[in-house]
Design brief:
6 strands, 2 domains, globular, D-Maltodextrin-Binding Protein, domain 2
C-alpha cells in the first residue's frame, strides 16, 4: 500500500526527510492519517476484501488471478508470475500496467524498496577455500550476466534445455511450438531453465542492465547484444510496458534515510511501538476505532520512546552525513 500513503506525502515504516532536513517517522505523519481514512472508506465500500489482513503475497494475488479483484499493485514481472493463472482461470481476461496515481493534492510516491534476495548461502567456517564461492559468482558475472557474441552463453545456458536452434539457424526459446521439429518438447509447457539450479539461483544479474534493456525493447529498438536478444525472447510485451512505466516514474521512489543499526531505544521499545502502530492502523481501517484515534496513537508513540528514537535517528543521520 506504499503508493497510497505516497499519495498523501508520506511513507510509513521508514524515516523520511522533511523540508527542514530532519528525519521523521513516516508512520506518524499527518499524511498517514489521510491515507488511513481513504483505506477505511475503501473497506466500507467493499473495494478491499475483509480478508486482506490475513493474506500473504501469494494468497492475496489469488484474488486477482481468480477474477475476484480488478486491480493489483506489484512488480513489473507479474506477467511472468502469477498472471499466467489469470489467463488460465478467467477466459478472455486481459491485463495492462498503469502508472502509480497521484493523490488529491498532486502528491505521488512509492516505497523505494531494498535489493531483492532470493536466498542465502552459508560457508562453513572451516572451509579450506571459502573464496571459491566468490570465484564461482564472479564467473557468472564475467560470462553469463552479459555474454559476448560467439561466447558459450550467447543463446542461453545450454542447448536443448533453455534454447534450441531452428533449421534456418535462428534461436527459439519455445521449441514446444515446433512439435514436428522438436517432438521431445511436445509435452512440455516450458523449457527447463538450468541456470535456476546454479548455486546462486540465477547465475548473476545486473539490475541496471535489465532496466536499460527493457526500456530499449519497449522503445522498439532492435536487440544488438546476446543479453538483449535473450531478454526480448522471453519477456512478455506487458512486462516490457510495465518496466517502461517503472522507469518513467523512477523519481517517485521515497528513500528510507535511516540505514544505521538499531538505536539503543529501538532495541528496548521497537516491539511495543510497532504493536501500537499496527493495532491502531488495523482498527481504523476495519472501523473498530475512529480516525482521530490516530492522533492519540501518535502522542502515545512519542511518549513511549518514539520521541527519543527520533532524536537518536537524527543524531545518526547528522553523523553519517558529514
Amino acid at each position: 500500500m506504499s503508493w497510497l500513503f505516497g499519495a498523501y506525502g508520506t511513507m510509513p515504516g521508514q524515516w523520511n526527510k522533511g523540508a527542514d532536513g530532519a528525519l521523521a517517522y513516516g508512520s506518524i505523519d499527518p499524511g498517514a492519517k489521510q491515507a488511513l481514512g481513504t483505506l477505511k472508506t475503501w473497506m466500507d465500500k467493499g473495494y478491499i476484501s475483509k480478508d486482506s489482513g490475513l493474506k500473504d503475497d501469494v494468497s492475496g494475488s489469488e484474488f486477482f488471478t481468480k477474477g475476484q479483484a480488478g486491480a493489483i499493485v506489484g512488480r513489473n514481472w507479474l506477467p511472468d508470475w502469477p498472471f499466467g493463472d489469470l489467463i488460465n482461470n478467467v477466459p478472455g481476461a486481459k491485463y495492462k500496467a498503469y502508472p502509480i496515481p497521484a493523490g488529491p493534492e498532486g502528491k505521488i510516491g512509492a516505497q523505494s524498496g531494498n535489493p531483492s534476495v532470493n536466498g542465502w548461502m552459508l560457508i562453513n567456517k572451516n572451509a579450506k577455500n571459502p573464496e571459491a564461492l566468490i570465484r564461482y559468482y564472479n564467473f557468472f558475472f564475467d560470462n553469463w550476466a552479459n555474454p559476448e557474441k560467439g561466447s558459450t552463453f550467447e543463446n542461453g545456458f545450454a542447448e536443448g534445455y533453455d534454447w534450441a536452434k531452428l533449421p534456418d539457424g535462428t534461436i527459439t526459446k519455445e521449441p514446444e511450438k515446433y512439435p514436428d521439429l522438436f517432438p521431445e518438447y511436445a509435452d512440455r509447457t516450458h523449457l527447463v531453465e538450468p541456470i535456476y539450479y546454479s548455486l546462486t539461483f540465477e547465475g548473476a544479474r545486473i539490475p541496471s542492465l535489465y532496466a536499460d534493456t527493457m526500456i530499449k525493447i519497449g522503445n522498439g529498438e532492435a536487440p544488438t547484444t546476446p543479453y538483449e536478444s535473450q531478454t526480448a525472447a522471453v519477456r512478455k510485451p506487458e512486462n516490457v510496458d510495465a518496466m517502461k512505466i517503472v522507469m518513467e516514474q523512477k523519481d517517485i521512489r521515497m528513500k528510507n534515510y535511516f540505514q544505521g543499526p538499531l538505536t539503543e531505544t529501538m532495541k528496548q521499545k521497537n516491539e511495543l511501538l510497532n504493536k501500537l502502530l499496527n493495532q491502531t492502523y488495523s482498527k481504523i481501517i476495519y472501523g473498530q476505532s475512529p480516525i482521530d484515534e490516530f492522533d492519540k496513537m501518535v502522542e502515545n508513540w512519542k511518549k513511549s520512546g518514539g520521541e527519543q528514537i527520533t532524536k537518536e535517528v537524527n543524531e545518526w543521520f547528522a553523523s553519517a552525513s558529514k
